Each structure stands twice: as structure tokens, then as C-alpha cells.
Amino acid sequence: MNKNYLFSKVLAIFAIVILLISFTTSSTYAAFSFSSITFNNDTAYRLYLNDMNSFTNGINSRTDYNTARKQMINKILELRDKYNNKPGINNITNKLLTTVLTEDSGNTSTLLQKILNLIKSLFSNIGTNLKTLTPDAVVNTQATTAGKLVGNDYNVKLSANIYYANKDANGNPTSNKWVVLVHAFMMNGQAIADTLGQMYLDQGFNVIAPDLRGCGSSEGKSTMGYLESLDIYDWLTYLNNAYPNNCNEIVVHGVSLGGATTLFLSGLEVDGVSIKDKKVIGVIEDCGYTSMTGIINDLFGSLGDSELVSTVLGLLDKVDLGNLGNTLASDNLVENLLINTIDVGLTAENFDEKQNALNSLANAEVPVLIIHGTADSTVPFENSDRVYETAMNNTKIPYVQRFIAEDENHAFIIMGNKYNVYEGHVQNFIAKAEEIKAGNTIDKDSNYEQEEEQGNSIFNSIFRLLTLFKNMLK
Asked: What is the pLDDT along the chain (474 residues), one digit of tens a residue?
């Protein structure tokens, strides 16, 4: 047997043993890194949770329900900024925000107890929650498409993190497959990369995770999907230009605001160049809303509080929605709000066409995967019905797959729910999209039979580790 081969095999086994030990011990993680996953000292993580625990315990259970939610959201964002860029902070911020935003009991005591239970769970799973991906590059581009189509004031500097599946000796990517991960309200590129990035890296996809405008390191202010879709188009251009020899196929995958952004992007064409021309082979839309007016109506209907609606929409500069009161007076009032107050980059002339993402989807030419939880209280599940119907009626879309997540709430993947089922859908969808790219014809309506849900036990974690090393052991 070749000595180099034997040495490599022994080294791989040793690495597995070290990682398995790290999964089965409860001591504090020392700083070390393997591949793209980094474990670091957990001091900031513990301080964040301690602060949040004390704050939550200090809220009177008789406090108005929506007032308590706003207080908690503001505190979570304050702590995120306080412990910015520390390991695990994105992870726990995402989970806390998702819980507050999707909790719909209307009872403050129930809300407080759910948050305290989550904090306890986060404390007990420090090792898992300290996982974070380390970018191989942080890159910038300009929002030239928004500047061209909307106005030069919207041409802002955009930032993104890049993570390579594998690198050569010079640190360049060896894979020619990419995924663009598009994050939700109040998140950033690192946060969505920590949620979904490893899923794609394991499949050999390089990852680019932009900070949407007004988020993370990107300039501008957060809007509601249309301008963001123009920015993602610029990132597609960036990938095609920056990696001419290592960009053969791209998947765009968005969650919540990112899902809506993906819908707005799906049929976008600039100067006759579509996203398919930019090497996009498929788009994945997870719990995105279908129109700007629709989501505002839905949120006012479920929340009934203008300040909380503003917060949920990620309008962190505190855009005043108070003129709407607790109900919407008319479509004209909403249109005026979106154009003049929030400033979503639309005008009275193009508002009706551009504010509805389904109008873009009706012009799409690439496969679509639709994901939505049936218990979503933020973006009603019926939105996914409209997405599915539009996609099926568009004869230019060659393949449509749907993941109906029973009893799951908004952006459930952020909480790690149904991870293996979610991953199975993504893998199957990519396989079908690649078949179509290769020139094969398949049935448009998917007949994929999803996997049974697995719990996030230590045994599943060990199995995933073993899978990561399978090529090293051959």
C-alpha cells in the first residue's frame, strides 16, 4: 500500500475522531478551525444570552403584547450590534427574532416563556450554535442596475461574503457551481450563510451571500424586494465577470424578504439579458410574499400595530407608518406609502406592474422550487399557492417543485426545523435543474417524494461529519 495513501487515511480518521470528541463533550470550545467551519471562544455568546435573559425576565407579563414584542425586537438588534461579528451571534439573533416575529398567541406571558425556553435551549447547545462560516473573500460591487433603471441616487455600494467549496494551491475556487443566498429582513449575508451555506458547500457549490441594501456593510436603505432584485442581478453580473472560468451554473435561493426578492428577480431582463443568460439554472423561493401591497395588508391584519409592522419590514430607520392606523384605508394610501414614504424605487406609472412579484415570475424561464410552511403567520401560506399557479401557467418554466412544510411557521429553516427534508428538496431540485441545463426534458410538475423528518440528534450530527469525510477515506 502506498505510504502517502496510508498516511492520508490515518490523518482523515484522526480528524474524524477529534471532531466526534468535540460533539460529545460539553466543555468550552477552544479556538480552532477545520475547513470553513470555525469554533471560537463563547464569551460573547454567553454574555448576549445573559443580557437577553435578564431583559426578558424584566418585562412585566401584563405589558401589552405588541409593546413587549417591539421591546424584545429592539433589544435583540441592540445586542446583535453590541456583540457584532462574534461567533454564534448571527445564529442566536436569527432564532430569537424568528421566534418573536412568528409568535402569535397574543399573550405576553406565553411570549416571554417561549423566549426564556429558547434562551435555555441556546445555552445548552452552545457548541452547535457557535458554528459560523469564515468567508474566503469579502467583495464589493455597485448597484448599477438600480442606478440605470430607477435613478442614480439608488446606485449604492454593495457588499457580499464569498465562501469556496474547495480551493486550489493559490486559494482560487475549483468548483464552477455557485449559489446566491438572499437573506431575510433584519439579517445579513453572514446570517444566511450560517443558516444555509454548509448545505451548499457540501454539494460542491461556492456561496456568495450579499448584504442587501441597507443591511450589513451595504449602503442605501432596506426596501421591499424590487430594488434588492436589481442588486442581485448585479451580483450575477459580478460572478460572471469575476470568475469567467469558474462560473458555469448559478442557483438563487432566498428566504422571506430574500424569497420575495428572488421572485422579483425571476423574470428580470435588462437590455435583453435575462438571469438565464447570466447562467442561472434555477431559483428557490422560501416563504416570500407575492406583492408589496399584499404583505403590508397581511401584516396590518395580523399585527394591527404600525410601529411593529415597520419593524417587521426591516425599516430600521423607523419609517412612520402611523398614518395608516390599524387598518388600511385604501390601495391608494398604501401605494403612496410605498412610493413616497418607504421609497421602494417605484413610480405611479410603473407601480401596479412592478410591485407584484408574480408579474416577474410570469416571464421567468428557469426551474422554480417553492417552499412554505402551512402555519406561517407572517406571510400567509396562500402566497405559495399563487406562486405555484403562476409558475405552472408559465409555459417557459420547465420544472416546478414544491415543498409544503406541514405545521411550520415563517422561515422555519432558520430554526433548523425539517433540515434533512429541506436539504433533500434542494438536492433533488438542483439535480433536475442540471438535467434541464444538459438539454434533457423532464415532467414540469415534480413527483419528488420527500424524506422523513429526522431529529437534530447527536447521531445525525455524527453521520453528517462522517459524510463530509467519505472521500478522504476512499
From this structure: 555 555 555 555 555 444 444 444 433 333 333 334 444 457 888 999 999 999 999 999 999 999 999 999 999 999 999 998 787 888 899 899 999 988 989 999 999 999 999 999 998 887 766 778 999 999 999 999 999 999 999 999 999 999 999 999 999 999 999 999 999 988 999 999 999 999 999 999 999 999 999 999 999 998 999 999 999 999 999 999 999 999 999 999 999 999 999 999 999 999 999 999 999 999 999 999 999 999 988 888 777 777 788 777 766 455 566 555 544 446 678 888 899 888 999 999 999 999 999 999 999 999 999 999 999 989 999 999 999 999 999 999 999 999 999 999 999 999 899 999 999 999 999 999 999 999 999 999 999 999 999 865 444 444 444 444 443 343
Helix, strand, coil shares of the chain, percent, nearest 5, are 50, 15, 35
Q: 346 and 406 in one domain? A: no
SS3 37: strand
Report yes or no on 464 lying in a domain.
no
Residue type present at position 381: F
Whether residue 467 is contained in a domain is answered as no
Q: Which domain holds residue 312?
A: 292-353
Decide if 98 is inside a domain.
yes
CA distance 179 to 281: 10
What count of Cα atoms within 13 Å lies in the side-chain half-sphere of residue 470? 7
Cβ contact 300:456 at 8 Å? no
Cα distance between residue 306 and residue 300, in whole Å: 7
What single string gives the DSSP state of each residue in 278-308?
TTEEEEEEES--SBHHHHHHHHHHHH--HHH
What SS3 class is residue 255?
strand
The number of helix segments (H) and strand segments (E) in the chain equals 20, 13
Distance CA 167, CA 34 (A): 14
Contact yes or no for 55/75 (Cβ under 8 A): yes
- CA torsion 266-269-275-278 (nearest 10°) is -170
The C-alpha cell at 225 is: 424586494
Element (H, E) at 24: helix 3-24
Q: Is residue 115 part of a domain?
A: yes
CA distance 377 to 407: 11
- Is this structure's pTM higher than 0.90? no
> Is 269 in the same domain as 330?
no
Closest listed residue to residue 219, CA positions, set 152, 143, 311: 143
